[in-house]
Each structure stands twice: as structure tokens, then as C-alpha cells.
Amino acid sequence: MSKNEISVLIATSNAMTGELLAGALNRQAHIRVVAAVTTGPDVIKAAQSVHLDVALINATLADGPLSGFGALRKLRESSPEVRSVVLLDNPESHVVVDAFRSGAKGVFCPSTSAFKALCRCVE
Asked: For the chain, how big is the Rg over CA atoms in Å?
């Protein structure tokens, strides 16, 4: 990985979604997905085993509804240098506030935003 590349972890509720997102992000010259996981514990394991710049964490992981927030809090404790963006299916204000309280540096709603906007968010 080059010095200018942004290393990204993707955490989604199912593997196929993560793989599709990873494939799309990896087509960007300056973004490299280094891990795609589906559970909170796997987020922490990945952060401990590879260098991460940005973590894209879905609010709901395979662990259950809003389990991404728990993973985000643990990631912030173990790897505070990683910038996290929460992927929200529903951008209700109380959920957005919870994301920032859990340690997110940003939030992104895939259902209402274009892929280019996600790339800018990662940058």
C-alpha cells in the first residue's frame, strides 16, 4: 500500500454487502479496503491486525440492531487514531446523535447519497 492510500475497514451486517462495497471502493486509486467484517468482535480483531485509517461501520451488524455502535465504542478505546464513519439506513436525528456520541467522526446514509459522496466522506 502506498503512503497516499487510505486504508479502510468495512463492517456491515452481511458479507455480500461488504464485498460489494469493498469492490467499489477498491476501484478508487487512493482507497484500499484492508478488511471487511460482519461482527463487532471482528472489527476489533481487524483493527489490531492491520493498519487502518478509516472504519466504515454499519449501525446494525450481524450481532444485532445497533450493534455497530458498541463496536465503534470499543474501536475508539482500542484504536483512537482510526477515524470512523457510521453507515445509517435511517438518518433519524437521535440515531445520528448516538453515532457521534459513540465516537463517529462522520455519518453517511447510503440510501439517500451517491457513491461519490461516500468516497469524499472516506477522504
From this structure: 13
